[in-house]
Known about the structure:
The chain is mainly alpha-helical. The protein has helices at residues 14-21, 25-33, 51-59, 69-86; strands at 11-12, 41-43, 46-50. The chain has a 3-stranded antiparallel sheet with strand order 1-3-2. The mean pLDDT is 83.
Amino acid sequence: xxxxxxxxxxxxxxxxxxxxxxxxxxxxxxxxxxxxxxxxxxxxxxxxxxxxxxxxxxxxxxxxxxxxxxxxxxxxxxxxxxxxxxxx
Length: 88
């Protein structure tokens, strides 16, 4: 009998996380750098994300206040524009 693994995995690397939230790895790295996404935990030289933390962030419950999807989209848009302006 084989043991069934939880889905999604409780802890995942960048490639797995990108697949689960349907975005690119570089996008996640940019969001983390800009403070728009939970940072990974470093363990044994690996960067790992805890799915429950990511899930709460996506739902807008990470700071105890539910934010709208539009609010998150606006924060990402503003941060992306700010980063582009700073790189000029």
